[in-house]
Amino acid sequence: MTDPPSDQSRFSSLTGASLKGVTRPLTAYFDRRFTDLHQHIDHRLDALEARLTRLETAVGGVANAGRIEAAAEQADQLNDVMARVERFSAEFGARAERIAVAYEDLAARARAEIGET
């Protein structure tokens, strides 16, 4: 046997129905706003996807990604070699300068000894 509806349940159902009626304009407004927002976001995502597709086509797609990575790796290796060559040339220049100074000192001493004898 089921219990007859109490006054409380009738009151809550009436309250729920009346609240829905009162808040309908407000919920309709926000429903439209959120629907517009979702459509705007969907449109932006479609535009972004189209741009990415055009970019991928221009770059050559994913197939060229390996070549791009290889080129970047070669560029890094070239930068390392260039840095080593620059260090070597700087050290070589400093050593050559020291050798030149040493030869000049040796030549000056030799001239001085020749002049004394």
What descriptors fit this protein?
117 residues, mainly alpha, 2 domains, rod-shaped
Structural overview:
With 117 residues, this protein is an all-alpha fold. The chain contains 2 helices and no strands. It is rod-shaped, with a radius of gyration of 43 Å.
Task: Spell out the blueprint of helices and strands.
Blueprint: H1 7-59, H2 65-116
User: Termini distance?
Assistant: 141 Å
Largest sheet: none
The radius of gyration computed from the alpha-carbon positions, rounded to a whole number of angstroms, is 43 Å
**How many DSSP E strands?**
0
Give the gist of this structure.
The protein has 117 residues and is mostly helical. It is 90% helix and 0% strand.
